[in-house]
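yo, PEP5/VPS11 N-terminal domain-containing protein is done. seq:
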Amino acid sequence: MSSLPPAAPAWRNFSFFDAAPVKDAHDLNASPEVFKNTPEISSVISSSTSVLVADIYGTVHILSREFETQRAWIAYDGGRVTHMAERNGVLVTVGEDGSSRAPMLKIWDLEKKTVAPPLIRSTKIQLNKPHPVCTIALSTTLSHLAIGFADGTVYLYRHLDQSVSNNTAIPKPRTVHESPGEPITGLGSRAQRHWNGKATVVDDVGCGLGCAAMDWRGHEWL
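structure:
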């Protein structure tokens, strides 16, 4: 009789999405101009009105339904855009200006249909030691912004919506999580009435950078 253990069941593949290549509106055999140099793209998000693309040269592009650039402006002069999030016509960006070593948090008003939207707020993200930003999460109401760093620190900005609507300075963040030696690879925002400030272990393994996301309803963690 064989002493070998039974074979493990074969993995099954499921198609959750129907993928279709994005084509240039004027040349169906080519990609849109903004996607032709993909190594230069640093961030892509879907907003309430369109798709936004940022690059390593500090420029943000607002695309049309045909993936053509409608508006573009330099958000970080001499630097690059690393992260973006948008809620209700307000764009939050994190990036690096050429004149500063610290990451810069900027808030833009996309409701203004100017080529370069007005910059509402801007502040440096101060850390005891410089570490790159790995991920950000913005609540649906614009009230909370979480920023995760490569050293395992998570900053939380509260009442961000009040800063925007009341024309006041961005409040100072507070540290809500620290995991020394382990970078923050993903963040999400979910409405919750009561929180005791303690972290709950969901999975012991975790995930790679950029491999986790909260669904658009803020209910499920993918």
